[in-house]
Write a structure and sequence with these properties.
365 residues; Hypothetical protein af1432; five-stranded parallel β-sheet; 19 helices; globular; RNase_Y/CdgJ; phosphoprotein; Sig_transdc_resp-reg_receiver; HD-like signal output (HDOD) protein; CheY-like_superfamily
Length: 365
């Protein structure tokens, strides 16, 4: 695996090199002192991961990673920064999968790189990682986006209403969650639901992020995107009812089908595809995207295994089971009855089906 670190300060690169030597890394790693030098080295040998400082002369980290995305979209992109002006934050969020505040712990950084590489190894086809790597924004449902903009422009709007609406759209929710779980805002704590994410970020940051996320489906895809948003909202609400809480289950159910917002995964060629672990491709790509964007691993794992919960190794009916049931019922499919029987909850299925009808009625009001 090829990993490149880019920083105009030699002492920073020396510190990373010492950490790599101490961990006895099996990666092939290289160092560059500028964006221009990094691009020249990447032309010779592309990298699986590029970790770049943000503030560098002539070409900053966001510019460098923008070029990396254009030329080598499958490369995992991580940015390091010691400041967080709104404009810089939005530029970093657009091109980097993860961003880390300086000063940082070298061991934690290398662990992040290693986990990202492990996730990428799930895929047989590099075209999949290239497709994910090109994505910085996903299409929001136009009606939801318009209503959120109206609420954000109204000084009398309640944060509760804004949170409810943001939490109804997978594309907008995942970007808010990505920013809230970055090292700038998370303060070492994982954020599992949109309400806590908004509280952590503050309404000003949320407003900037939403207004910068004006990405819509093309006219032909609008009905598909809106249908996916509605079924995701139904699954999320049902998961909250089944688990009796707002949190990881509701968020994972909302994001379970987020990969289907990528046009590439809506083509017939990908329908029967699986990964090296025989995980259905849309579940694996969704989990990979969420992991790259720094969402908590319990959400990532629930998305990865929501189609085949028995393969997760989870013996009791927990988060993965709740997400599996909620997503299946919300999309008019039958849950894995053998799995439900093995985990001792098959007798709950009629109650959950009743909950589904009640939840649908509530959303239709």
């Amino acid at each position: 695996m090829q990993v490149m670190f880019v920083d105009d300060e030699s002492r920073v690169l020396s510190g990373i090199e010492r950490a790599l030597i101490l961990q006895d890394s099996k990666w092939e790693y290289r160092f560059a002192n500028s964006g221009q030098e990094a691009l020249a080295m990447l032309e010779e040998v592309p990298a699986d991961v590029v970790v770049s400082d943000m503030r560098m002369p002539f070409m900053d980290g966001a510019e460098l990673l923008s070029e990396v995305r254009k030329r080598w979209p499958g490369t995992i992109r991580i940015i390091l920064s010691g400041y967080s002006e709104p404009d810089a934050t939005l530029r970093m969020l657009d091109v980097a999968h993860r961003f880390v505040s300086k000063p940082y712990d070298s061991k934690a950084l290398l662990k992040m790189v290693g986990s990202a590489l492990d996730l990428r190894n799930m895929f047989k086809d590099p075209a999949v990682t290239d497709a994910v790597g090109r994505i910085s924004q996903l299409p929001a449902a136009p009606k939801v986006f318009t209503e959120i903009c109206r609420l954000l422009a109204d000084p009398n709007s309640e944060i509760r209403h804004i949170a409810e609406l943001l939490g109804s759209d997978p594309a907008l929710s995942v970007k808010i969650m990505q920013l809230a779980n970055s090292a700038y805002f998370s303060r070492g704590h994982h954020i599992h639901d949109i309400g806590n994410a908004i509280t952590q970020l503050g309404l000003d940051q949320v407003k900037l992020l939403v207004l910068a996320s004006q990405v819509f489906a093309d006219a032909q895809s609008v009905p598909y995107v809106e249908q996916l948003q509605q079924s995701a909202l139904l699954a999320s609400n049902l998961a909250a009812h089944i688990s009796s809480r707002q949190g990881v289950e509701a968020t994972a159910a909302l994001l379970a089908h987020i990969a289907l917002l990528l046009p590439e995964l809506r083509t017939p060629a990908y329908e029967p595809a699986t990964t090296l672990g025989n995980i259905p491709i849309h579940a694996a790509v969704g989990a990979y995207l969420l992991a790259l964007w720094g969402l908590p691993m319990d959400i990532v794992e629930a998305v990865a295994h929501h189609v085949q919960p028995a393969q997760s190794g989870e013996k009791a009916f927990g988060v993965i089971g709740v997400v599996h049931v909620a997503v299946c019922l919300a999309n008019n499919s039958v849950p894995d009855l053998d799995y439900l029987e093995q985990t001792g909850v098959l007798n709950h299925l009629p109650l959950w089906q009743k909950m589904l009808a009640q939840t649908q009625e509530m959303l239709d009001e």
